[in-house]
Amino acid sequence: MVMQIGIHIGWSSPNMERLQTANASSIGPITKEQASLVASCTGFGGLLGALLGFGLFELLGSRNAILLVTSCLSSQWLCLLVAGSRGSIGWVYASRLVGGACFSMTYNCFSLYLSEVVDSGVRGTCISIAASGSAIGIVLGLVAETYLPMQLSSSLYLLACLGLLGLFSWLRDSPYHLLKSKDAARARRAIEFYQPGRDWLLELEQVRSYVEATASFGLKERLAELRAPPVRRCLLLIGLVPALPLLSGSLALRSYMQTILARARSSLVPPEQAVIYVNLVAILASLASVGFIDRFGRRPLFVASSLGTTAAMLGLALHFLQTGERRAELQWLPIGCIVLYFVAFSVGFQSVPAALLGELFSDTAKNTAAFVSTLSTAFFAMLPVKAYQPMVDLVGEPYVFFVHAGLSFAATPVAVFLMPETKGKSLQEIQTRLVARA
């Protein structure tokens, strides 16, 4: 599922050039204004997804929410198939809009689902494995859209979505959702299904304790809970934690990587090939670091990502401050900094936000937390990408990278002073500690 979002991100780079080239596809050539609108649709769709997703998880449960979002993911590829057959740019707009809405909801769906069905000892690892699917999807999207016709690649993506729908239709609802629905028998079977060999009675009582703590809350009690100091603190955190990795420049770097390397006069590897190699390194880093989150904890990994991405952005800024022959002598530096950035990003920025969303909140506050996280993700995914080129034109590359370095470093005090450590704790234990800490 997360891989589909990676494909959505990777789709842009090859197709933006293809759509603006005569006879390169059945659509176009399109104008620069139309290309800009295609790029913007993902951001607008993300904001729309945040609004539409409000209440989705509480009403449907995390598994059914995944089924709905996967159906929407399927519809974006259907839109591209129609666009190719009719030669209509309007269907491309629709595809990117739907994909943007799914982008903002997917990270919340999978993290909430996994936090409810996976054992606390490996919960972070499982979320990290799922989050690494984004890097894999980006490379698949880049390669497929470079070498395959749009209609063929879209058909393959659609088949993968249909397979996902079949898989999640077979899986069971989480025991948390089933106990909220007062179906203890199915909740027991769900625990035995997801955690075979465990003491199902003990697990069932822990789930029941977590759900019943807020089960009788009406609207007044829910609003009062949101005003409680530990919940307000966590809502602030869950707004900042997805935003800071995006403000550090991750999507802007992915979108403009080829341009950045060309302007940096880096000729060690052709820029178009370097993009693929860097994303392959990002995949390896993601897979290598999946177990770190349950070994070292959420807070240390977030700090490590913050410091690593800060160093990478400072290196890029310093490279662009060089001129003439000196820049040519340092042509290894931009590639090295970009590789360092994505390796550091994979360590904590990629997985910690998703893990915390599923861990920090009571059953009744999760819906509001998911809305805050989705809105933050959608807005701050769009802002750096849209602002990058105007900022470069205004102040130049070095100062843009200095800004991203500062925003990357801002994640360190956020982790140190705001982020609780949730490694190895059950959801009920986390709530107990948050209340005691307040």
Automatic annotation (TrEMBL):
Subcellular location, principal: membrane
Residues annotated as transmembrane: 35-57, 90-114, 126-148, 154-171, 234-254, 274-293, 300-321, 333-357, 369-387, 399-419
Subcellular localization(s) per the UniProt record: Cell membrane
PANTHER family documented for this protein: MAJOR FACILITATOR SUPERFAMILY (MFS) PROFILE DOMAIN-CONTAINING PROTEIN, PTHR48021
Keyword presence, Cell membrane: yes
GO CC field: plasma membrane
Membrane topology, record value: Multi-pass membrane protein
Organism whose genome encodes this protein: Trichogramma kaykai
Keyword terms of this UniProt record: Cell membrane, Membrane, Sugar transport, Transmembrane, Transmembrane helix, Transport
The protein's name: Major facilitator superfamily (MFS) profile domain-containing protein
Pfam family, one: Sugar_tr
The Major facilitator superfamily (MFS) profile domain, residue ranges: 1-423
